[in-house]
Design brief:
Blueprint (H helix, E strand, L loop, with lengths): L6 E2 L23 E8 L3 E9 L10 H5 L2 E3 L2 E5 L5 E4 L1 H14 L7 H14 L11 E10 L12 E10 L10 E5 L17 H5 L2 H8 L5 E3 L16 E6 L2 E4 L10 H12 L4 E3 L4 H9 L3 E8 L3 E10 L2 E4 L7 H14 L10 E3 L1
Parallel strand pairs: 1-3, 9-10, 9-15, 12-13
Antiparallel strand pairs: 2-3, 2-8, 4-7, 5-6, 5-7, 6-17, 7-8, 11-12, 11-14, 14-15, 15-16
Helix pairs in contact: 2-3
The structure holds 2-OXO-4-methylpentanoic acid (COI).
The site of 2-OXO-4-methylpentanoic acid has 6 residues, from loops.
Catalytic activity: L-isoleucine + 2-oxoglutarate = (S)-3-methyl-2-oxopentanoate + L-glutamate; L-valine + 2-oxoglutarate = 3-methyl-2-oxobutanoate + L-glutamate; L-leucine + 2-oxoglutarate = 4-methyl-2-oxopentanoate + L-glutamate
Pfam families: Aminotran_4 (PF01063)
InterPro entries: Aminotrans_IV, Aminotrans_IV_CS, Aminotransferase-like, B_amino_transII, BCAT-like_C, BCAT-like_N, BCAT_family
Length: 356
């Protein structure tokens, strides 16, 4: 790792903080941000923590035209003993570099980035809320900054990290969400950018989400882009189904995002000797399991979404009601254990916690 040198300029005009019960997802931002530049001569350089402020870019900056950008999402948690901890930040930085590779952005120094994130979180630690279900969401992202309209990788970039105190991602809080299976649009195809955390995947999901939101659905469940048969993910979360005592999640195939929470769920299930398989699973199989009374639970997993039980799935005209619209026993156990580890309430047998 390169030597850890970073300039810090403190914000002399800190903002007032929102009350814990006002927190939604990603609406408020803290007093500082991390920023680092890249150019061909110096590589990544000039790491600094500065007052939170707008980013000034040339209107020709390539991020605006071709969307050459990647991002991550992780959280800092305040424990009951007032310690601050991160959850598997190394996984996020590894994935950031995989996304970088896919989008032709130069790799970051993962260890340096984790140190910088810890440093930033420490400086803004007063912003980490303490109320149940709240945390400090950390959003690292990289943008292409070269002013140029040709379609090729930018010669310059900025790596930025911002922080946002957050509550639950969904309006329904930790109550089960209603999801509509998307039959019209697709999110990603094999060979595309589905497994990279890049803005285009999210921009292209907005239309489908807008349509189903009018019918009261929180999100869409994406099917594979070729046959529109196999389940992929929800966009803000990976999905799991408990059928006849076994847990099934779509196997990673190049178009599904490799979620850190997804991996943690699989690890927890294995630790408890609950059968879990990663394989292709079709919507028809889910419907058949529902009709035969074998679909016991469904839930999503993600940093923002945590463990979000799914209470209803709409698949065209067909409606699938899961566990009477209530949170299932397994979803509950996973939620309690995961958040228990994250908030330092239960022991972390996996070595996932990194203290700030
Ligand atoms: C996260 O869970 O951190 C994500 O990046 C999902 C985002 C769409 C809110």
């Amino acid at each position: 790792m390169s030597e850890y040198t970073i300039t810090v300029i403190k914000n002399e005009n800190p903002k007032s903080k929102p009350a814990s019960d006002e927190l939604k997802f990603g609406k408020y931002f803290t007093d500082h941000m991390f920023i680092q530049d890249y150019n061909m001569e110096k590589g990544w350089h000039n790491a600094r923590i500065i007052p939170y402020q707008p980013v000034a870019l040339d209107p020709a900056a390539m991020i605006f035209h071709y969307g050459q950008t990647v991002f991550e999402g992780l959280k800092a948690y305040r424990t009951k003993d007032n310690e601050i901890q991160l959850f598997r930040p190394n996984k996020n930085m590894e994935r950031l570099n995989r996304s970088n590779d896919r989008i032709c952005i130069p790799p970051i120094d993962e260890e340096f980035a984790i140190k910088a994130i810890k440093h930033l979180v420490k400086i803004d630690s007063d912003w980490i809320p303490a109320a149940e279900g709240t945390s400090l969401y950390i959003r690292p992202f990289i943008i292409a900054t070269e002013p140029y309209l040709g379609v090729n990788p930018s010669a310059t970039y900025q790596f930025i990290v911002i922080l946002s105190p957050v509550g639950a991602y969904y309006e329904s809080g930790i109550n089960p969400v209603k999801i509509a299976v998307e039959n019209n649009y697709v999110r990603a195809v094999k060979g595309g950018t589905g497994e990279a955390k890049t803005a285009g995947n999210y921009a292209s999901s907005l239309k489908a989400q807008e349509v189903v939101a009018k019918e009261g659905y929180a999100q869409v469940l994406w099917l594979d882009g070729l046959e529109k048969k196999y389940i992929e993910e929800v966009g803000s979360m990976n999905v799991f189904f408990k059928i006849d005592g076994k847990v099934i999640t779509p196997q990673l195939n190049g178009s599904i995002l490799e979620g850190v929470t997804r991996n943690s769920v699989i690890e927890m299930l294995k630790h408890w000797d609950i059968p879990v398989v990663e394989r292709k699973i079709s919507m028809q199989e889910i419907y058949n399991a529902y009709e035969s009374g074998k679909l016991e639970e469904a839930f999503g997993s993600g940093t923002a979404a945590v463990i979000s039980p799914i209470g209803e799935l709409a698949w065209g005209e067909k409606k699938i009601y899961i566990n009477n619209g209530e949170t299932g026993e397994l979803s509950h156990k996973l939620y309690d254990t995961l958040t228990g580890i994250q908030y330092g309430k239960v022991e972390d047998p996996f070595g996932w916690i990194v203290k700030v």
